[in-house]
Amino acid sequence: MTDFSQIHKPVLLQECVDLVTPALHALDSVAVDCTLGLAGHTIAFLKAATNATVIGIDRDEEALEKATARIAQEGLSARFIPVHAAFDQFDEVLRAQGVSQVQAVFMDLGLSSLQIDERERGFSYAHDAPLDMRMDTSQSLTAREILATYDADRLAHIFKEYGEERFSRPIAKRIVQQRQTSPLETSSQLTALVDAVIPAAKRGGGNPAKRVFQALRIEVNGELDKLRRTLPQIGLHLAVGGRLVVESYHSLEDRTVKNFMAQGLRVDAPADMPVIPPDMQPFFKALTKGAVKADADEIAYNPRSASVRLRAVELTRPLPQRWLHTFELESQGPDDGARGAHSHRRRTHARRG
Ligand SMILES: C[S@@+](CC[C@H](N)C(=O)[O-])C[C@H]1O[C@@H](n2cnc3c(N)ncnc32)[C@H](O)[C@@H]1O
């Protein structure tokens, strides 16, 4: 039998259980795991909160199948609903389940170790593979297509913004130059190109192509746009007393989560207002002090946890009217279509576990 806990080690597992499950005591409570992966966190939630049902979303069908099988092995299928969807379809997923409010929402952003280790999906600079990088293989946009079609400015922007790559412009220019004679098809071709552009004296630790690969993965999967559109949808569906718990691994993701949560943690009134009307009082309560990080022991056991930032809030009262409107507008956000000529399957696909 496969030992999934060794394929993907859930990050800050006990901390997440302690933050999520106090909201799940009531009979029929519902939690959504927006990033099911191999269900490491979900299984712990189901075991700790025996009244709760978890709706587990993942855009990766293979992860979803493996997680569903693992939950069945644990005898927990009766309280689990797997859904194949991207998490920015949050509202649609809940509607399809006939659920309007949920008691907890969990997100563990990024890739699972299963995806990183699957060489043929091209996520890793360490293995030669076609430049694919799609989490959802039914989507059409791949890393190869981005490298073949985006102009130098757009490529440089992505490398700088999502990869914090100092040599974003020369790398982008070299890509555009090279593709005129031979398009980039494989991860080793991209690694070699980055290697040739970044001067040896200016390299930090690790593989010099790491940041370019990260940036491409974020762009291929529209990760930040999806997160920006999803958080307000979650806000609209949280029950009072409901909790939102998010683990991020990239500074832009963490900033997006922090800014979203901050909107409900502050008084929504001018500083000189003598009496604050109840409607302008905060609607979130912070459950973490700043961001929780992994300690040295966890980082030694699971290096992926080194960059984690865990933040959590609880909804303390119904959303004020003004914020209902704001979240409705924000959840529409810019569409993926703006990133390139590609289409996503918008259909959600739910299966009984
Ligand atoms: C870090 S893993 C989750 C691991 C999980 N917590 C566990 O313990 O096994 C992240 C998962 O989220 C999925 N994912 C990432 N972005 C997504 C999105 N926008 N919509 C749905 N799933 C997404 C990935 O396919 C991956 O399986």
What would you note in describing this structure?
It catalyses: cytidine(1402) in 16S rRNA + S-adenosyl-L-methionine = N(4)-methylcytidine(1402) in 16S rRNA + S-adenosyl-L-homocysteine + H(+). It holds the Pfam family Methyltransf_5. It comes from Bifidobacterium animalis subsp. animalis IM386. Keywords: Cytoplasm, Methyltransferase, rRNA processing, S-adenosyl-L-methionine, Transferase. There is one protein chain. The chain is of the alpha/beta class and 353 residues long. The two termini are 19 Å apart. Helix content is 42%, strand content 13%. Strands 6-7-5-4-1-2-3-8 form an eight-stranded mixed β-sheet, with helices on both faces. S-adenosylmethionine (SAM) binds next to helix 3 and strand 2.
Keywords:
Rossmann fold; single chain; 353 residues; 8-stranded mixed β-sheet
Summarize this structure briefly.
GO terms for molecular function: rRNA (cytosine-N4-)-methyltransferase activity. With 353 residues, the protein is α/β, with parallel strands linked by helices.
N/C terminus separation: 19 Å
Label the structural class. alpha/beta
Trace the largest sheet across and list its strands: 6-7-5-4-1-2-3-8
CATH fold description of the largest domain: Rossmann fold
**Main pleated sheet:** 8 strands, mixed
Fraction of residues in helices? 40-55%
Q: What share of residues are in beta strands?
A: 5-15%
Number of helices: 15
Radius of gyration: 21 Å
Low-confidence stretches at least 5 residues in length (pLDDT < 50)? 336-347
CATH superfamily membership of the largest domain? Vaccinia Virus protein VP39
Task: Indicate the mean pLDDT.
Answer: 90
What small molecules does this complex bind?
S-adenosylmethionine
The outline comes out as globular
Number of strands: 8
Order of helices and strands: HHEHEHEHEHHHHHHHEHEHEHE
